[in-house]
UniProtKB/TrEMBL annotation, chain A:
NCBIfam families, per database record: SAM_7_link_chp
Protein name in the entry: TIGR03915 family putative DNA repair protein
Superkingdom of origin organism: Bacteria
One Pfam family per UniProt: DUF4130
Domain (DUF4130): residue spans on this chain: 83-242
Species: Alcanivorax quisquiliarum
Region (Disordered): 253-282
From TrEMBL, chain B:
Keyword set, alphabetical order: Iron, Iron-sulfur, Metal-binding, S-adenosyl-L-methionine
UniProt protein name: DNA modification/repair radical SAM protein
Record flagged with keyword Iron-sulfur: yes
Record has Metal-binding as a keyword: yes
Lineage summary: Bacteria, Pseudomonadati, Pseudomonadota, Gammaproteobacteria, Oceanospirillales
UniProt domain Radical SAM core: residue ranges: 61-188
Pfam families cross-referenced by the UniProt entry: HHH_3, Radical_SAM
Cofactor(s) the record lists: [4Fe-4S] cluster
Gene3D superfamilies: Aldolase class I, Photosystem II 12 kDa extrinsic protein
InterPro entries xref list: Aldolase_TIM, DNA_rSAM_put, Endo/Exo/Phosphatase_dom_1, rSAM, rSAM_sf, RuvA_2-like
């Protein structure tokens, strides 16, 4: 099929806009190959203006897509990948045609959908796990954080920190967007306002207590770097204080002069036995 | 001593406890409230150390001064180790600071036994009280429970903590007598019984009053068994674990491969920790908790230990060839989950898919089942095992190679 027959739409990488456009495309019975969405990063890829699909006059044909499936599409839409909106339209089209398996993990499209949902959920979890707040240097804020998520999850995942930190005020900035909590309400912005980015990136803080804890809770006799890297992807290390410590701890453990769990700096301190006479049998 | 020097000693002494879970707590939120902290049932691993272990909680001892002389323990009284003691206020300060920076989701506090079991337990409870009452901390708290402490103190701990644990450490009285003369199975199980009964009393409240009733360790109780410090077999360990699950309603039993400790006493080994054995015990434990296996099913009657070269589910299937191959399109979900290489989640997804259409081998691959392992045990629409290979041959083909085994140290 030539490009002339292809509707090129633009949803600004926004699910609600895509959903409205997709609804009209379905009602017009457009096949997945007859409509595509241009990427935010590459507008006018085909040298064409993006099309506007006019809705059909009422009554439009009813669509047969369960609400649960729409929720799944909304989640998968947060997965950053070229052609993500086209893929979602294909799944939506199949669902509307009665193919329930289009969202199941055993189906080729369903497998991709499920994989994307899983990756998005994982990335939300990564935000909750690996984000670090540092003491703010400006008076209007208590805590600031810089985080680099791989998918569009900040707006959905950041209310978690309002539950954690009560009435404290904080900012999370990312390369794409940002969120500010003023002690009472969340404010989300995309793109991230420059002042938020500046306060979040501009802090150096004393993290020596955490570094000490991390060094000492590690058990060198159980070294297992594959397990660690599987759980804590390297891309996060740069923002983590412990990221700096990992190579040193691994090489110390590998040198293996000590084959016990105790860290050398503790072993070298003077010890103290406790006299048995203090013991009273219960 | 400065707080950072204490932290070094008291974290180093806490690392031998395997548990660091922060899951299973009821939903709590500090949104628009004084104080900090939330829980929502799911645990968070805020970091991983290079041993592959999750850092979810600030896991420290209040003190490593200890009157007991447990031979497997780095803090035993006869060991010549540096000693330190936090004040309750110092632990509170560290917990709140680590929590706000998002390093951890709460505190796991344990302690050496100082003065008496009661005195030690009082100190642990005091830290939890300060956090909950003075600072309105709503994050996760796990308190170690000291066996032989007054049940009133254990009850107080249960009101503040999400989880309580009493470490049994060794699976039999004879092992405890040899290595931990101050401890006994009876004393440990008595403390577990107090926790069980405290939880039961809350659960038995009429539904209407329950929301307001004081909670009691809502995330349950756990314990730890050390593996490889003495000759107890896997059979003894798994039988003890099953007994604890059944009689004390434990949420989790943790298995901790014995790590050599400095100035090791002659009664315990010096070898590297038996990590593969620990892994097999966790697999067997998961089969008991999640799949409905009994401890007796997982070990052949003539075997004392789980084989290291194959996982326990495969071991069970090889001993029960008469129940296989299983037709994936007809068998119950429970039976599908008993197939080697197919987990609980995949079994559930297979059953959902076959309601729409017949399941083929390719579908299992897409569901990320371990096909190599599953193939000899299944029938799909387009596949049945070619010939009935002898179990010995199958085992040889599916077992870990010598090279893979050596990776486990």
């Amino acid at each position: 099929m030539g490009l002339a027959n292809m509707y090129v739409l633009d949803c600004q990488d926004d699910f609600e806009q895509w959903r409205e456009q997709a609804r009209i495309a379905l009602q017009r019975s457009l096949l997945p190959g007859e409509v595509c969405w241009q990427a935010e990063a590459a507008p006018d890829l085909f040298g064409a203006q993006s099309a506007v699909l006019a809705p059909l006059p009422e009554p439009a044909p009813a669509l047969l897509v369960p609400a649960r499936a729409v929720d799944m599409l909304a989640l998968a839409a947060r997965f950053r990948a070229p052609g993500r909106w086209d893929f979602l339209y294909k799944v939506l089209w199949r669902l509307n045609a009665g193919e329930r398996q289009a969202i199941m993990a055993g189906d080729p499209d369903g497998a991709i959908l499920q994989k994307r949902i899983k990756a998005v959920r994982r990335e939300m979890h990564h935000l909750h796990a690996f984000l670090r707040f540092r003491k703010s240097t400006v008076a209007e804020l208590d805590w600031v954080a810089w985080h680099e998520p791989a998918h569009d999850i900040l707006d959905l995942a950041s209310s978690h920190f309002a539950e954690r930190l009560g009435q404290q005020r904080w900012v999370i900035a990312t390369p794409q967007d940002g969120v500010f909590y003023d002690g009472e309400a969340l404010h989300y912005a995309r793109p991230c306002p420059e002042p938020w980015r500046a306060v979040a990136k501009g802090v150096r803080d004393d993290e020596s207590l955490w570094a000490t804890y991390y060094r000492h809770i590690f058990n060198p006799a159980r070294l297992n770097r594959e397990a660690m890297q599987g759980h804590m992807p390297r891309r996060f290390w740069a923002q983590l204080e412990e990221g700096r410590l990992i190579p040193e701890l691994i090489s110390e453990a590998q040198r293996g002069s000590r084959r016990s769990g105790q860290r050398e700096s503790v072993a070298s301190l003077p010890g103290k036995q406790i006299p048995a006479r203090l013991v009273r049998k219960p | 001593m400065e707080i950072i020097a204490k932290l070094a000693i008291l974290a180093d002494a806490a690392k031998y406890d395997a548990s660091c879970a922060s899951s299973g707590a009821p939903k709590r939120s500090s949104r628009n409230k004084a104080g900090i902290g939330s829980t929502n049932g799911a645990g968070i691993c805020h970091s991983y150390t290079p041993d592959g272990r999750c850092v979810s909680l600030l896991k420290i001892l209040l003190t490593n001064f200890c009157l007991y002389d447990c031979q497997y323990c780095v803090s035993r009284r006869s060991n010549d180790v540096p000693r330190a003691r936090f004040t309750p206020a110092e632990v509170v300060r560290l917990t709140l600071d680590f929590y706000q920076r998002n390093y951890v989701s709460g505190l796991f506090l344990s302690s050496g036994i100082i003065r008496s079991a009661d005195y030690t337990m009082e100190q642990l409870v005091e830290v939890a009280r300060l956090l909950r009452e003075e600072h309105q901390f709503r994050g996760y708290i796990h308190l170690k429970t000291i066996p032989d402490a007054d049940p009133q103190l254990i009850a107080a701990a249960g009101r503040y903590a999400d989880r309580l644990s009493v470490n049994i450490e060794l699976p039999s009285n004879s092992a405890l007598q040899r290595l931990a003369p101050e401890k006994s199975i009876a004393g440990i199980q008595a403390a577990m019984g107090v926790i069980r009964d405290g939880r039961k009393a809350v659960q038995e409240q009429p539904a209407r009053g329950r929301a307001k009733a004081p909670r009691f360790a809502p995330s349950g109780q756990s314990t730890q068994l050390i593996v490889g410090a003495e000759p107890s077999s896997d059979k003894v360990i798994l039988t003890r674990a099953q007994h604890l699950y059944q009689n004390f309603g434990l949420r989790r039993v943790y298995y901790s491969a014995f790590t050599p400790i400095p100035k090791s006493p002659p009664l315990v080994p010096l070898q590297a920790p038996p990590l593969l054995r620990e892994h097999r015990l966790y697999q067997a434990d998961f089969l008991m908790r999640g799949y409905g296996f009994q401890a007796e099913e997982l070990l052949h009657s003539s075997e004392e230990d789980l084989p290291l070269d194959i996982d326990p589910k495969l071991g069970w299937a090889l001993r029960h060839r008469e129940q296989f191959p299983v037709d994936i399109n007809r068998a119950s979900q429970q039976m599908i989950a008993r197939v080697p290489g197919i987990g609980l989640r995949s079994a559930q997804r297979i059953v959902a898919l076959r309601q729409v259409r017949a399941v083929r081998l390719e579908d299992l691959r897409r569901l990320r089942c371990a096909l190599e392992k599953a193939r000899p045990f299944i029938i799909t629409r387009d596949y049945r095992p070619r010939q009935d290979s002898a179990s010995v041959v199958l085992r040889q083909r599916l077992s870990l190679s010598a090279q893979q085994l050596s990776l486990w140290g």
